[in-house]
Amino acid sequence: MRIPSLAIHLDRTANEAFKFNNETHLTPMLATVAKVCNHGEKSLEKDSATISSNTNSQMKHHPILLQKIAKNLGVEVSQIRDFELCLYDTQLSVIGGICDEFIFSPRLDNLNSSFCSVEGFIDSLQESKSLDNDTNVWMVALFDNEEIGSKSAYGADSTLLDSTLKRLQIGGNLTSFEQTVANSFLVSADMAHAVHPNYFEKHEDNHAPQMNQGLVIKVNANQRYATTSATSAILKVIAEKHDLPLQEFVVRNDSPCGSTIGPLISANLGIRTIDVGNPMLAMHSIRETMGSDDVHTSIEIFKAFFKEFSEVDSKFIVD
Questions:
Q1: What is the 3-state secondary structure (H, E, C) of the chain?
Q2: Residue 109, SS3 per DSSP
Q3: What does the record list as GO biological process (predicted)?
């Protein structure tokens, strides 16, 4: 399927701003009527008859679409009861830049953070026996629906994490869950906005994260990010010990600030939280860009965090 944009020759205002109507301008093209009619008419007629005698949900869709889905699944059209269909960019991710320093890919936000955290978690278990002697539970939590508000059964603004932590409590006293939360630490890993070489004025002069220069700690006085001085200090100590670079980002005062699941979880549970992310360009576009070196750096930071948080945390005194 394809959603072609309108040629600028037909809309001269397109040079001023890329605007479209979500209802009328984003319908994807599947096929032309002429091609569909020539694409196995008897087969389509057969499937149409099958659909007519089947569920109402199948009657909502064109037979040629159902044929394609059934063929890919290796089933009959009549076996399809219902489905959820999402369109996405099918171009493969690539390494780019004259020095291979960039990753060009869809959905880097936030699959990159998910990948780095899981890889760091796995590496920390393979290289160390730290978990055997740690009284803490190590966890990576991956949530759905972040970009539409996280308010779902499996989103960050649900009871999923709360319920999971409670199920981990074995025995204990009446306040064991509350004590666990108070002793816990959340690294909320999303992505960050790298300074754009063509739009440098969009960043605060002293907070312009660069790609391939390390993970970004995100700070906001209005708590759009959940980072505090205490939580950032712990990660800085761990990163410094392993000579891993960190950057800091504060949005300009005259610019709105995005947010993450960090403040949601921090507010719901009362857990110490830091917001971090790899710097990237073109966030939420169909072709996002980030630094290739930052993947390895992030994995190393997550690995070090899992292995050493308990020890570092025990030495901190917050006044």
A1: CECCCCCHHHCHHHHCCCCCCCCCCCCCECCCHHHHHCCCHHHHHHHHHHHHCCCHHHHCCCHHHHHHHHHHHCCCHHHCCCCCCCCCCCCCCEEECCCCCEEEECCHHHHHHHHHHHHHHHHHHHHCCHHHHCCCCCCCCCCCCHHHCCCCCCCCCCCHHHHHHHHCCCCCCCCHHHHHHHHCEEEEEEEEECCCCCCHHHCECCECCCCCCCEEEEECCCCCCCCCHHHHHHHHHHHHHCCCCEEEEECCCCCCCCCCHHHHHHHHHCCEEEEEEEEEECCCCCCEEEECHHHHHHHHHHHHHHHHHHHHHHCCCCC
A2: helix
A3: proteolysis
Write down the pLDDT at residue 13: 72
State the amino acid at position 132 in one-letter form.
D
The first and second tokens of residue 228, run together, are 């505090």
The tens digit of pLDDT for each residue in 33-66 reads: 877 777 655 555 555 555 555 555 557 888 899 9
pLDDT category at 169 given cuts 50, 70, 90 is: confident
Q: Across the chain, what does the average pLDDT equal? A: 89
pLDDT category, 235, cuts 50, 70, 90?
Answer: very high
Q: Are 216 and 291 in contact (CB under 8 A)?
A: no
Query: Mean pLDDT throughout 87-100?
Result: 94
Quickly tell me which residue has 């993970």 as its tokens: 215
Distance CA 149, CA 163 (A): 20
Domains of the chain, each with CATH number or no CATH = 8-79 (no CATH), 94-314 (3.40.630.10)
